[in-house]
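Sequence, please.
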């Protein structure tokens, strides 16, 4: 992918990003960078501010202070759809429309939308063979080829999450943000889900929030630990697992529970 035509391929970073709800600081002075191609996990106890931070990245929330950069472009005040055009996207739960469609129909629709073919009835769109080919290639990436003609709603939750990721990838992102992708699915399925996520092409940077430390340490190559709305530390899985402050945070949490 050519970085000049896709600025999202450049480093996504934040500079002293803060978000308050009234007098409560959900994020304070968060300065982070996500290197292209990374599998970067955001971890931390409940209420640490991880989801708030992802929402600040996507434009779902406006920061109280600080900046968000994609390469040299200040995207702090861009709308969500403008950030998607720059290559940053997140998954959304399959809505009622997609739930009634087959996997292939859903992905064809998402690819058509990106290509500006929205509003064209599916059957007409399906006559564009290149759209169908692109959708099938995405299904192959997500190991969903065998399910192409299955109705999305009838699939196991883990597979539905993969369809949600296929829909996000249809926007051709260089940065994919995943907020607890394995939440609510059985552990055998979540391992499978992460195996597919880990094997996504390296021109897609993946930033994910995950509570299951087994999955985090198996699939992340970079980990940021947030506590109380701030970054406690960041490093490789080996550095994070050896950090006594991290152990303290999680031990403290366990004792509390
Ligand atoms: N819209 C809002 N209004 C007020 N407070 C909010 C709002 N959104 C989040 N908060 C608060 O900000 C804090 C951080 O929430 P956030 O969801 O970002 O944490 P998190 O690290 O993602 O937690 P979890 O792991 O439990 O999902 C929480 O105390 C939450 O109650």
């Amino acid at each position: 992918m050519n970085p000049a035509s896709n600025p999202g391929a450049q480093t996504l970073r934040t500079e002293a990003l803060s978000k308050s709800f009234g007098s409560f600081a959900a994020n304070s002075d968060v300065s982070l960078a996500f290197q292209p191609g990374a599998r970067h996990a955001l971890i931390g106890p409940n209420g640490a501010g991880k989801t708030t931070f992802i929402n600040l990245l996507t434009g779902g929330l406006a920061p109280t202070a600080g900046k968000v950069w994609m390469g040299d472009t200040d995207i702090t005040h861009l709308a969500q759809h403008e950030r998607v055009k720059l290559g940053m996207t997140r998954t959304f739960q399959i809505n009622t429309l997609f739930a009634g469609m087959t996997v292939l129909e859903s992905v064809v629709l998402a690819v058509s939308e990106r290509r500006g073919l929205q509003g064209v009835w599916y059957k007409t769109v399906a006559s564009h063979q290149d759209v169908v080919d692109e959708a099938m290639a995405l299904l192959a990436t997500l190991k969903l080829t065998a399910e192409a003609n299955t109705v999305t709603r009838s699939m196991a939750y883990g597979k539905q999450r993969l369809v949600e990721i296929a829909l996000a990838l249809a926007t051709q992102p260089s940065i994919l943000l995943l907020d607890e992708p394995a939440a609510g699915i059985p552990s055998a399925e979540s391992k499978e889900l992460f195996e597919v996520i880990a094997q996504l092409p390296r021109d897609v940077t993946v930033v994910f929030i995950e509570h299951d430390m087994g999955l985090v340490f198996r699939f992340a190559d970079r980990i940021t630990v947030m506590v109380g709305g701030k970054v406690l530390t960041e490093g490789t899985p080996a550095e994070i697992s050896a950090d006594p402050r991290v152990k303290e945070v999680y031990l403290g949490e366990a004792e509390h529970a």
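The pocket of adenosine-5'-triphosphate is lined by residues 21, 24, 26, 44, 46-52 (CB under 6 Å).
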